[in-house]
Write the structure tokens for this entry.
Amino acid sequence: MAYNDTYMRYDYDAHRYVLTTEYVAQKLNIDLVARINPTGSIDRAQAAVLLLERASQNVYSYIYETGGDNDVQEWILGTDPQARALIRDAMGEQVMYLLANGDLGLVAGVDGATMSGAGQSAFAEARVAPNAKAILQRNLSGYRCPIVFFGRFPIPHGDRVRLPAYAEDNY
């Protein structure tokens, strides 16, 4: 079951985890609210939350674009403690990447959704932090494959299980 703690909260509408500013401060040693100085933003704390949302969106989009069994991926990410740790670490890398490089999905001349336009392949590759990608390539021990596995996930304990409805398992 998905849950909130000091370092991550689960967005039940978007079905994904999002880091907290506490995680960034304690684990990455970055005061995100003090560091952000967005143009035209009145509320720096809200701008920090939006950056964390963007990091989550970038990482989850990469997972779902790379993998092929998105319903199972969503279930694993929402319910498996090992996957939760991987997604937390990958999002931490993505936050540092966004702070250092900006959001390359918002570069003028490139459609962030389709990555079409000038330099399409370079921007598609550069949108997610290389360290985040490496973390997501680690095998999940219970599944013997990474979360970005393309194909049907080998579900442990026999054949394919019926995934519980979102309302049943809150993932």
